[in-house]
Amino acid sequence: MRATAPWCEGGVVLAIGMGLSILLRVPDLVAGTVPTEVTQYVAHPARLYYLFSLDLFVLVSLLAVVPVPEGRSRVRAVVVGVLFVLLGYRTYDATVMAMLHRSPIFYADASHLVGAFYLLVNAALPWRHVVMGAGGLVLVGVLASIVPAGVRRIHHWVRTPAGRRLVLAANLVTWPVIAAVALGERGSYLHRQTYRSVCLSTTEALVRNVQASRTLRDDIVRRAQSTVDSTYATYWAHEWKQPPSIYLVMIESYGMALAGPAGAPGYGRFMARTSDSLRTAGWHMASAQSTAPVFGGLSWLSAASLLLGTPVEHQPVLDVLRPTLPRYPHLVRLLQHHGYETATLQPPVRPRPGLSVDNRYGFDRTFYLEDLNYQGPRVGWGIVPDQYSLAVAHERFVAPASPPFFLFFETVTSHAPWTAPPPPLVDDPLSMGRPDASASPSAPAVLPVPGDSSSWADVRARRTRLFRHVQYTWRTLRDYLRRKAPPNSLVVVVGDHQPYFADTESTATPVHMLSRDEALIRRLGPYGFERGLQPKGRGGSLRHAGLYSLLVRVLAAHDADRRPTADRPPYRPRGVGRAALLPPRP
Description:
By secondary structure, this protein is an alpha/beta fold. It has 19 helices and 11 strands. It has helices spanning 5-31, 38-43, 54-63, 74-100, 106-122, 127-158, 161-185, 202-225, 231-234, 256-259, 267-280, 299-308, 315-321, 331-337, 369-372, 386-398, 459-483, 518-522, 547-559; strands spanning 245-251, 284-291, 341-345, 365-367, 405-410, 425-426, 441-443, 489-495, 508-515, 530-531, 542-543. Strands 1, 2, 3, 4, 5, 8, 9, 10 and 11 form a 9-stranded mixed beta sheet that branches. A two-stranded antiparallel ribbon has the order 6-7. α1 packs parallel to α4 and α16 (386-398) runs parallel beside α17 (459-483). It is elongated and about 90 Å long. The protein starts with a helix and ends in a 27-residue tail after the last helix.
């Protein structure tokens, strides 16, 4: 027994090491950013390095050369601290990867971490989220008590002759294998490829994060110092005689993962029925795909890209642009210059701790939560149902406005988590805002959707639940356009970003243009638009940052057919890197 006892202890220590290694991968396994199916590892054994922590291996090798002290060990304390830092970083890494489908960048994510804290402070979290949070805290406490004991046991054993021989042999085998895996994987395509995909340790990923942060910071500095593009300033010189009123509607989480061939069951049939319904009311439609600057969240950056006509992929970019916005030649200011009355409809915007209310684009009217005077039942994350908020904006802004007008509407009913079904459509939307409302529904919010499932772990089920909410918003828009939209109107409907669960590299979202003027819709053909409400073709031909100049060019060409082509506003399909500021007004 005494002869075999060290090897029995070695087996226990090996199990502890494997447990710690898997512990460091738990955030990735939960978020699904590494393979979770056993068959994927059986078919490709090299992928086992996803479950192998090179950082932990190095720390154990370090313990093998450090003597075991009589009392407390500072080295072991450092090792335990490093393990918790690595676990914290992997949690951050996996969260960003799962939600935004990009590598984490400290420089870009710092403000979002602060915002996430305030979101938790302000949110009325469902009970299960509270339970999950409490369970996480309990788990951290448990780990804080057992991890030091496990590290101590590892330290004692790797200092034995057998332990040191095993660590030496493991190093002789591991490093050549790591080198082979590195050479094999770094030259190949990986699902959701990012710098993290080709990193073999969390430490390497952290270092690359720092490098990416520096690169982003330098890029922003270069962008701020680059030669300006005066394209948007030249738009002010063109005169429009009879421009249409414009609705710009951004539908939350409306991406091609929902609308594409492998999208939500029933999407094509529903959009075909919607198209037929609008066509009978005199509307003409064309659709395409547009590449959004973000994935899974950060909707305001997508809106900024569209309104400013410049790519805004990260918060620091918007922070740099913010001081220039009062004089920046963005879409809202351009339309105001051409005589448009402008308004924004953003139902969830309200003063909250850490989140100020800011009319950064200078709209003439704002419809935020307090302006809507909504006292009805809370609906999802956005609180106010889209049908009610659009009805309020119509009554208080559209109906009394002198055309042309511009209404920017960010819908919210399709915002995650989609835990409850959307509200029913009602005959009198304004009645929904009363605390004692008993509005009779004119129709259910959604039609039957095939492929429904009760499993939240199923991406198909999430897609179906999201489609139910997007369907509600589209039915709201359809009924509104049929009954209340002024005849001379152009409606632009675009998704803000892909839903966070989308299993794709593409950031494309649908973009639709609707008008009762068929000639205006025909002008969109050269830009990749096809008739109807079902976006086809390849993504990437249009970009959110380029929709500003596309819209202006099409409207200007339609307003003045006799204008020479060369004299029409230039089109910048990718937006501009740095727009010229307008000269001060006298």
